[in-house]
Amino acid sequence: MDKQKVIFKDLGLVEYKTAWDYQETLLQQNVQVKSAIRNWQSANQLPGSDDDLDLQLSHLTTTNYFLLCEHPPVYTLGKSGKKENVLMSDEALAANGIAFFNTNRGGDITFHGPQQMVGYPILDLEKYDTDIGKYLRNLEEVIILTIAEYGIKAGRSKGETGVWIDEDIPGKERKICAIGVRCSRWITMHGFALNVNTDLRYFNHIIPCGIANKQVTSMEKELGFKIDFMQVKEKLKKNFEKIFNSELVADL
Predict the structure, then answer these.
(1) Most buried in the list 56, 58, 91, 220, measured by CB within 10 Å?
(2) Are 128 and 4 in contact (CB under 8 A)?
(3) The domain that contains 135 carries what CATH number?
């Protein structure tokens, strides 16, 4: 199978809502392309179109993206989550400079902040596999491979999306990466949040992912020293290309 081209963009430190809006724009652009393709395929000619337009439509294709970024402190709640899993009042959130958003991704409550690697793949799964479960496992595998390069052994917790350490040892399970996605017309958005040098104190004010009595950790906490953030980014990009059989490019 040929490698898929994926446009890579490093958004740096960006407000959560700005990144969310950008993802929505890219997703909707791809959905519109799919609609045009389907209309063209069903009618083979759109009303009022000419041969040049037909030729143009016949070559339309969706565009894949992989965005990496950090966010200022923010709690985000998935569409199946419960606000009571946020243990701070709205006033306390504002006083501490922490934003809050109800989102349209899957999952419950999580935290995003500086020195956390957040990845947003905008992929057309019809170019990969139309299997959300497999897509989630692939995202997990990208993380598992990346942190393994630092000597951190991680895996999956049965029935719980994300990447865990000591997932099979009751009382020692700790989550190092949260995952929550949305998919429309097989176009994905949202993604993963890997704790690199993240300030874990922010997780004390939520029930992370709605899962009580389980810890959250970071690469820094596991290894005992600060990690080169840019190095993690490069390793993530490499492992993304490997797992998704894709080539990251600056633009198409």
Answers:
(1) 220
(2) yes
(3) 3.30.930.10
